[in-house]
Amino acid sequence: MRRFVHLLIPLLTGTPAFALSGLSGIDTLPYTITHYTDENGLPQNSVKFIAPDDEGFLWLATENGLVRFEGDRFRNFNSSSRISYIFSNSGHDKLFARTDQRVGIQVENGRTATFTRDPKGEDDYEFLIYSDTAFTYPVNGLPNVFADGIHPDYFLIPVNAQEYYMVCKDSIRFVRKKQEQYRFKFPISNPWKFFTMGDSLYQLTEKGDINFFDKDKAVNVMVRGDILNFPAYKTRKKDIQLYWNFVAQQLFFYLDQQCYFVEVLPDGSLGTTLVVKDFDFEQLSILSVYYTAFNKRVYLGSSSKGMFVFSWKQFHPLRTGEGKTDVYYAQAPFGNDGIITPQGIAFDAQGKHSSLPLFDRVKGRYDNYSMQVDKEGNIWSKSIRSIYKMNAACTEILWSRDFHDGVSQLYTDNAGRLWIGTLKSGLYYLYTKDENPVPLLYSATIKGATYMQMENADTMWVGTSKGLFRIQVSKNRIDTIAGLEEAHVRSLYIPNKDEVWVTTYGSGFYLHRQNRLTTMPLDKLKYLAFAHCIIGDAHGYFWITSNKGLFKASRKDLIAYADWKQDLVYYFYYGKSQGFFTNEFNGGCQPCALKLSNGDISLPSLDGIVRFSPDSLNHYLPARKLFLDEVELDGHSLPANDTLLLPNNFLQLKLHISTPFFGDNYNTQIFYSVAGEGNDIWLPVESNHVISFSSMPSGTYHLRIRKINGFGANNFIEKSIVFTVELAWFETVWFRILLLGLLALSVVAYLRWRITSIQYKTHLLETRVSDRTRELKQALEFLQTSENKLRKQTLMQQRLIAAITHDIKTPMKFLMLLSNNRNTGDKSAKAVYDALYKMYHLVENLIQYMKTHIKGEGVILEAVDLHDLLEEKAGIFRPIAAAREVEIFNDTTPGSKVMVNRQLLAVVMHNLLDNAVKYTTQGSIHMEAIHQGNEVCIRFIDTGIGMQPVLADWVNQYNATDTQVHNGIGLLIVIELLLLINGRLKVIPNKDTGTTVSVILEINNSN
Q: What are the phi and psi torsion angles at 484 (to 5°)?
């Protein structure tokens, strides 16, 4: 919330403001002015005193309380009081303030407290706090707003807490611990011209001279320094105004809109340094001045216009002021510590520029991206498709060459070669000493080189928009660096062997070392993701350019991070407020930066060349302590202690953290972690320095807040805050005891209910078991009765089979033999024989079927020759078939065997052949057995009348649960016997006439 105004501030002074006098050209040091008012932080616009405390804060005395300034924000204390002035104790480690009601306020550890007088002792600055009468006026700073309105008899000018000078109208007294030490006569016309520095009293005379009082003798003091170079001092030094900041022990001379910092030199003279120029203190009602030499900042307090902060710009970019020509990329050393750019603009060591005519004659002009100096001092540059060689003075073009391809980059090595990167053709080189050098193709693999640099005499690194390559030049070996295959390499920096720093466009920067690629950490807003260039200085620091400013990092820290010896890296940031015309630096050129022979570093930017000496810059580091300013719980403030007790049901806790730092706030890096040792997770504190927590479970939490102080390993300061969240009502001991009691009662009640339930269920179970036992007993008796009946039925069936065998089958066989007289020609006998034959075999089949089901014995397998079995059955039926003019053919290969129960299979074959003969007249019956994998198919193919479709479907879809029987029991017997020998029956009608009945047997092996 601050407004930056460059030093051209006619709105404030009506005249331009510049910088320190005595400096010109590149040495001119301009400022930025930050103006604070009640619109951007101050509670009120009168800043009467500015004083530093021992913690590093600045304290401002205003009409609306004491205000603490930490560099980018204000905090108001005692807002209901008007602060008269600020002073410090004898050791200057504490500050005091006095209100207009003569109330003392003590400042300690970054906070304020009411100062209570000790009646038994002598308080520090008692004479400033309590001895305010109409006759004595304490003067502890100049100028004084009451100089024209009050005329006391005595002016009390303090030295320290127990000593002061008493200036009267005609004498001066020195008092220590309320005892006068000495007095001397001295006529005084204006008491507002006296001040102290250290323990000495000084006076500004009416003529503008300075007197030093050596006890009772006034000695004229010599004035030296910048003020002597100001013409007005020689003619109008009587107009000098004093700005004396007693608490800071600082004195300033103000003359004709120039302000000089005054300090006592070793020889006793006063040295002056110009710190503000062309700024009208009187018009802006400036009352207080404070100056910090370490970062060259001046703080001006106004009685009505707030506070002005003058910040010295450390950088002074070089530019011509001609607009587009001030966009710079490549550079080359020129002359005596000068710089030349591809635009033909030369800057000398003092920053003056000139334009070289030779560059205007280059066809197509240079494209600004490459500028190299060879071993002979000649300068090489390029346009889009051409290369030029100029002499060192840039007065003559010695050689040029047009390429068939676009030239992406140039680089000269120490071996006298110029390396040429092209967009599509590859990497070329030529020898710079040759009068008419011929570019030679080194490798067609590397295209579009963006940066090249030698690591040693034989190793070169080449960056492209698609990765990084390492080349062993003599061996023509090219290695692709893993991890950067898709990276757009912006630049390379190789300060030592096996130490290759790589910047990329969008992917940050890397270190390749010991055959390992390490990704370097980024800054907090990730500006370094677009790092353009790295260059080192003589003090071990790297300077890294980006699109958002310039960063400084310790090389030692970066290497320690790569070696896992350090967890974080501190980056010091320089932004536009430090003097750049723009924060956007440029890259994509070679070289991307220059290090000149005098140690200066030169960096190209989008608006000017930033040239600087690293030795002349300060990096004011945020090395002060951390403070807990305020604890805010659900919108209410709590005491800011390091131990906090919080209710369980809070919604939001805010901790306001502060640290004094008067530099760019981007350089303040604060992190926090909750609980835990070891692998803690560190989160960044927001820029408003507020750490916020939502509702949290009960317990004790350890909050660690860590601020990085600057470069170096473990260079941080840490503050710990312990806060305890109270137990919820349901987590208290009494609630747990009550809960345990209820739980115990619940368990007892549950057990009693459970026991009763189990007893009831046991009774039911016993009843059901008794009933079930009775039912089972009855069922067992019924089963025993059924078993006896079945046994009797089986015995009867066995006897019936025996009777049929003995009483029916044997006589039938005898009758069949008697009627088998084929030579008699008696047709009746033949008919009797046929009928007896069928009846005999029907009885035989029924007997076998019944034996199989009644005995329930396992089926005995044996090797059956199918040809012989079928031939046997054919021999039985051929006489009958011949009478029906039917021929039976056995098409089965002799010796075709199968493992099966022969007796059951014979019954099946007999029935099927019998059916075929029965339904065929004047035709043929073919029998065949075929092996098909693990199956044997026995077919009966007849030319008879065929089988009815309904019967054929019933056979093919036979289900053992089907109670319907079609056309007798013959087929049913066949199907059920086949099930016993792993077979099935399949009926297919022939195309012309007749039926094919197939018996399919599943077998394990066959011969």
A: -125, 20
Alpha helices in 40-183 (DSSP H): 126-129
Half-sphere exposure of 745 (CA within 13 A, CB side): 5
DSSP string, 459-480: EEEEEETTEEEEEETTTTEEEE
**3-state SS track over 63-86:** CCEEEEECCCCEEEECCCCCEEEE
Residues 6+ apart with CB under 8 A from 204: 193, 195, 210, 211, 240, 242
Answer for the pair 83, 141: CB distance below 8 angstroms, yes or no.
Answer: no
Cβ neighbours of residue 771 closer than 8 Å, sequence gap 6 or more: none
At residue 44, the pLDDT reads: 93
Sheet holding 489-496, edge to edge: 489-496, 499-504, 509-513, 516-519
CA distance 877 to 162: 152
Structure tokens at 148: 């024209």
Cα–Cα distance list, 502 to 293, 512, 517, 539 (Å): 37, 8, 10, 21
Residue 23: its pLDDT value, please?
32
**Spatial separation of the C-alpha atoms in residues 374 and 432, rounded to whole Å:** 7
Distance of alpha carbon 814 from alpha carbon 823, whole angstroms: 18
| Residue position matching structure tokens 């005084």 | 188
Alpha-carbon gap, residue 528 to 505, rounded angstroms: 9
pLDDT surpassing 70 at residue 808: no
CA distance 340 to 378: 12
Reference 936, options 859, 986, 999, 861; nearest CA is 999
Q: What percent of the chain has pLDDT over 90?
A: 56
Closest alpha carbon to 705 in 730, 724, 682: 682
Per-residue CA distances from 631 to 102, 288, 645, 652, 656 (Å):
30, 33, 11, 11, 6
Q: What is the rounded CA–CA span in Å between residue 250 and residue 91? A: 16
Per-residue pLDDT of 610-648, as tens digits, reads 999 999 898 889 999 999 999 999 999 999 999 999 999
Task: Identify which of 203-207, 909-913, 984-988 has the greatest average pLDDT.
Answer: 203-207
- pLDDT score, position 477: 95
Reported as type and span, the H/E element at residue 200 is strand 200-204
Nearby residues of 238 by Cβ (< 8 Å), 6 or more positions away: 206, 207, 208
Q: Provide the residue type at 270 as one letter.
A: L
Over residues 209-268, the pLDDT tens digits come to 999 999 889 999 999 999 999 999 999 999 999 999 998 999 999 999 999 999 999 999
Asked whether the bond before 143 is cis by omega within 30 degrees of 0, the reply is: yes
Closest C-alpha among 245, 195, 201 to residue 52: 245
CB 511 within 8 A of CB 558: yes
pLDDT digits (tens, 9 = 90+) for 752-779: 999 999 999 999 998 988 888 888 888 8
What's the pLDDT at 824? 52
3-state secondary structure of 569: coil
Give the model confidence (pLDDT) of 134-149 as tens digits.
678 888 899 988 887 7
**Start-to-end Cα distance in the chain:** 106
Of 432-436, 560-564, 830-834, 973-977, the range with the lowest mean pLDDT is 830-834
Angle separating helix axes 970-980 and 827-855, nearest 10 degrees: 40
Q: What is the pLDDT of residue 676?
A: 56
Q: What are the pLDDT digits (tens) for 84-95?
A: 888 876 555 678
* SS (HEC) of 291-312: EECCCCEEEEEECCCCEEEEEE
Bond into 591 cis (ω within 30): yes
60 band by pLDDT with thresholds 50, 70 and 90? very high
Side chain identity at residue 964, one-letter code: Q
